[in-house]
Structures are given as structure tokens and as C-alpha cells.
Amino acid sequence: MTTTTAPADDPRWLALFIAWAAAFVSTLGALFLGEVMGLRPCVLCWYQRIAMFPLVIVLGMGLLWADFRSARYGLALAVPGGLVAVYHCLLYWGAVPKGLVPCGQGPSCTEGQLTVAGFIPIPVLSLVAFSIVIVLLSYASKGTRE
Q: Which residue has the higher pLDDT, 142 or 86?
């Protein structure tokens, strides 16, 4: 254990827990959309999944042992995933020229079916999830120089 206080007394533990919960809900949401709803992920969605899915395990292990160093390891996954999410949103909104679209074959990032509840684009949900995780992990990693 790398902390001298009980996990419930440390606000960094709560930040780590909320970041884990956001990653867990995002993972369940991605699996639901792909496996239950049958929406095939595009290339950028796969890259974001590669960054999000391991966060559930990395942050969960950090919570189990109240090891705040896991926040730094989580940031190493969340920041690149967040950058892909930013690019994906720019692509969805049409700010990226068509020549820079990595989704050649298979599902397209710009299809209208990429919305939840009819109006929330999936790339935006991903960006929000990564942003929440990054902010909370930045806070949770404060003071972990070991």
C-alpha cells in the first residue's frame, strides 16, 4: 500500500474510483453497441477501445491496493485514447478533409447511425469519457513520485 491514510479518507482514491467507473461504463457501452446492437466499430473506435478496455483492469488493481501509481499508468492509456477521440470528433463534424479519413472499408465514422438516443454522437461520448478519466487520473496521480 503506498498511502498512509485509509482509502475512504483520501480524495485521490475517490477520483481513481470515479475514473475506473467511467472506464467500466464506457467498456460496457462499447460492448453493448457492438455485440447487442450490432454496430460494427470503425478503425478509430477500435483504437479507442484498445486504450479504454485495459483501464478497467489497471485502475481496478490500483483501487484494490490503494496504489495511486496506477493513475500514471492509466494516463499512459487514456491520453492517446483521448487524442484519437478528438480526431474522431473532428472527423465526425467534418473538420477533417475526406483524404485523411482512415476508415476505408467497413463502417464509416461519418454515418448517421453513430448516435445514442438519436442525438448524441458516439465519438462525442468517447471524448467525454476519456476527458473525465484524464482529469480524474491527473488529480489521483498527484504526489505519486515513487
A: 86
